[in-house]
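re: ur question from earlier - yeah i can do the single chain one, its not a big deal. heres the input i used so u can compare w yours
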Amino acid sequence: MNKKELNAHLSKLSSGAPRGSITRFSGNYGRDEIGTPFFIQPLAQRETGRRIMRQNREGRKDSFFFSVMERMNYVTSVLTPAQCGYLLVLTSHVDFEGLLIRSEKDTAPMTQALMQKTLKLSDTKRSTFTDFLDVCLNNGIIKREGDDYYVEKGFHFRGKTKGERVVRTYITQLREMYKEVSAHDIGLLYRLIPFIHVDTNILCTNPNEKDARSVVKFNRKTLAEAIGVTPQVISRATSRMIYDGKSVFAKVTTATDGTFYMLNPSIFRRSDRDDYDETTKGIFGLS
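and the output i got, formated as tokens:
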């Protein structure tokens, strides 16, 4: 055996690869020709196992639904801010067909009583709930088929996009936020959906602009004008919207741009990236 053949032989031995053929002896276990045991697993089974492990590790943090940016102005023109908040929270219960269901583990359709409970509207606020549901039904935002209720996919949906400009809303984070933030404030966030920048989550007038130097950022006054509130409402909202110890908004001030705003990308996000850049992590305290 020459030096080249010896090196190749040693490399094969150290690689851990089986010697010769493998003979199965029990379940997914087998031995090669020199008796070394191996675990035999089809590639598809291996990938399925990896996917399940990844999902278990990440839990539901990556579950989200889409909002179609171009349709949000229609919704905000017919719903009050609080009703927009109710719609966003309720939409966190849609399945991939748009049906409102109890949960991802219990796919039974939601009843009106369960919708009302989910929105944390007591029996004394039954009329608040029925007014909300009626305006959604009358304006084609929610549709009813028998006893089942669906959120119209032209506004919000789960599944694949078809070229629409969309914003992701992360389900677990939204529900956690609703424990600490009012429906009215979530409704204000709803009104901001059309203005979320595609890459940075900055609130701006040209959210699809890819050249970062050309992004026209909102200040307090222009942001208030864009969503039809006073600058004081913006100040109060950006200061008090906190959940799980994290800010929903970031106020960023520079010498050239003055003060502008970003939304926490763990709640709302345009980008389909699964991670955050280091600057964003630092601003919002994300891991």
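Residues 81 and 274 are 30 Å apart (CA to CA). not sure if urs matches, ping me
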